């Protein structure tokens, strides 16, 4: 297809392709983008000029692009819906109890010895195993176990559990 033939095809069918997508989507900008992309795909195929089959191909390409975009948007919306924070359904009393417990925990954690606090936080916050903690702190596994035992015992007593 020559440039002149493509220009004739474009001028003759662009509005009808754009309207077709606009009626399906209700979005004028999207319809224009998809119509342009459809013509670009036809141009890239470098077909011989035969208006009737090319017109049908344009509608098919435009429809396929629209469906692909719709599916991508649908997946993206599902993903975004999962990311939205859930609504907090806790009563004010539960919220207050949580805050009190959190404050007790932070106070008890800060009153642990530095060695016990370090081992406890490496285990609980970083999810490290005793062997990994021992390797990082250059201690024996038994020393890590002993510090962890003291830390847990102190936290249980401080939190009244």
Automatic annotation (TrEMBL):
Keywords: DNA-binding, Sigma factor, Transcription, Transcription regulation
Domain RNA polymerase sigma-70 region, first and last residues per copy: 9-73
RNA polymerase sigma factor 70 region 4 type domain location: 104-152
A family per Pfam: Sigma70_r2
Tagged with keyword Transcription regulation: yes
Family: Belongs to the sigma-70 factor family. ECF subfamily.
UniProt protein name: Sigma-70 family RNA polymerase sigma factor
Organism, as annotated: Marinifilum caeruleilacunae
